[in-house]
Amino acid sequence: MRRQDLEAMDFEELWLLHEELTKILAEKITAEKRELEKRLAQLNQPDQFGGAEGGATATGPGQPPRRKYPKVVPKYFNPLKPTETWSGRGKQPRWLVAALHSGHTLDEFRIHENGEASHRDAGGHEH
After folding, report:
1. HSE of 96, CA atoms in CB hemisphere, 13 A
2. CA geometry: angle 25, 31, 36, nearest 5 deg
3. Which segments of the chain does DSSP mark as H helices, in order?
4. Residue 83: enclosing H or E segment and its boundaries?
5. Where does the pLDDT of residue 126 fall: very low under 50, low under 70, confident under 90, or very high at 90 and above?
6. pLDDT tens readout for residues 91-111
7. Which of 63, 66, 96, 106 has the least C-beta neighbours within 10 A?
8. Could you tell me where the DSSP H helices lie in 58-112?
9. Which residues form the DNA-binding protein H-NS-like C-terminal domain (predicted)?
10. What pTM value is reported for the model?
């Protein structure tokens, strides 16, 4: 419809056209909203990411489940308390930071592959 046609229409005709357009737009908006909600529901399905099995649970509504990570084996141990270990990832534990500041090297705390601790005596040095 051309602008001249609209300007030639009287008030009643323009108002009816306005109401008709409003009705059509409302229907289209509702249909578009339904379609988007369907797509969103599809994206939020948990089985899309491999399901919630094996501890991979959603962290909150609308968020995908956490990714599975392999078990991290400890690489370093505290000789004063051999149960305290560190995998080498993230922030260094306090006992290791203190030992490194006192002059020890990281390699002294390494857990060897055959299960033995480092070559040092397990309780012989102060940290």
Report:
1. 21
2. 120
3. 3-8, 11-43, 94-101
4. strand 81-86
5. very low
6. 999 999 999 999 999 999 998
7. 63
8. 94-101
9. 66-111
10. 0.39
